[in-house]
Structure formats: C-alpha cells, structure tokens
Amino acid sequence: xxxxxxxxxxxxxxxxxxxxxxxxxxxxxxxxxxxxxxxxxxxxxxxxxxxxxxxxxxxxxxxxxxxxxxxxxxxxxxxxxxxxxxxxxxxxxxxxxxxxxxxxxxxxxxxxxxxxxxxxxxxxxxxxxxxxxxxxxxxxxxxxxxxxxxxxxxxxxxxxxxxxxxxxxxxxxxxxxxxxxx
Length: 182
Prior knowledge:
The longest helix is centred in the middle third of the chain and has 32 residues, at 54-85. The chain contains 5 helices and 4 strands. The protein is mainly α. Residues 1-23 have low confidence and may be disordered. Among the domains are: 1-49, no CATH class; 52-116. Helix 1 packs antiparallel against helix 4, helix 2 runs antiparallel to helix 3 and helix 4 packs antiparallel against helix 5 (145-155). The protein is 62% helix and 12% strand. The strands form 2 sheets. The chain has a two-stranded antiparallel sheet. Strands 3-4 form a two-stranded antiparallel sheet.
C-alpha cells in the first residue's frame, strides 16, 4: 500500500504498523525492483509456457468423456435393438447390458469429477498489463496516491517487511517478501 508521509516521501506501508521507521526510498526501490526482476518475468514465462491453458486441457478432457458417453448410450440402444430382433437372448442381453451400464456409470462419474476439478482460468496477459501499470505508477507523480494504492492492491496480495532491531531510517538492510494477487 502506498502512502505519503509527513516528509513528502511516497512509500509502501506494511500491513501491520511497524514500530520503527522504515527506509522509505529504499523500500519503494526494492518493491519496484522485485516486481520488475522477479514477478514480471515469472508471469511472462507462465504466459509463454501456456500455464493459463490448463482449463482448455480440462475442457477437452470433458468433451472427450462426453463423446465416449454418447457412444456408450448408442451401444446400449443397439443392444435393445438386438434383443427386440431376437438376435440376443434375455440372458445374453442382461449380461452385456450390465457391462455397458457399468461403463456408463464410470464415465458419468469421471465427467462429474472432471467438472468438479475444473481449474480457474488465469488471464496472464491481463495480470502482466496490470502489473506494468502498477510499476509505472510508482514513479509517476501525476497519479494521486489513492489511485496508486488501488493499483498496488490489485497486484499485491501480501507484502512483508522485516529489518533487524536497532536500524533506523536510511539503513538499507531489510527483507521484503511480496506475494502477488494471482
């Protein structure tokens, strides 16, 4: 979250109020560097590798199972025709129909399980654009702080700042952990 302190610096505020002074400029620079060097390339790699297409793969699996279900139902209807024409005896029909019914039940269960486990669609292109806008907003003085906050909150899920005891404003030794909102 970005805020403007009494000295006029723009910075990110920890989710939980820190009792010691933050190294404001170093923190903002670190956030920007982390977003540019770690998180943005990671999202671009996921887009390039097609990681967002898992929903497409799962959808194709469901379509294949539904086609298999139609074939099994057609096979069952054919068995009824063979029984009616006298080619199948009652015993043969019952035996073969039970096997087809088991396959239909299994296929139906697989379809239900596949639909239940359908992954969430992640639009990596949209995430990359939003992240780039947020990074650009960090240094843009024309954008109001409230708008920067909204942009950062749309990108960053959690940010943890830690430093060693006794450090004061301007000291560069701190750790920043950023979790993106994906």
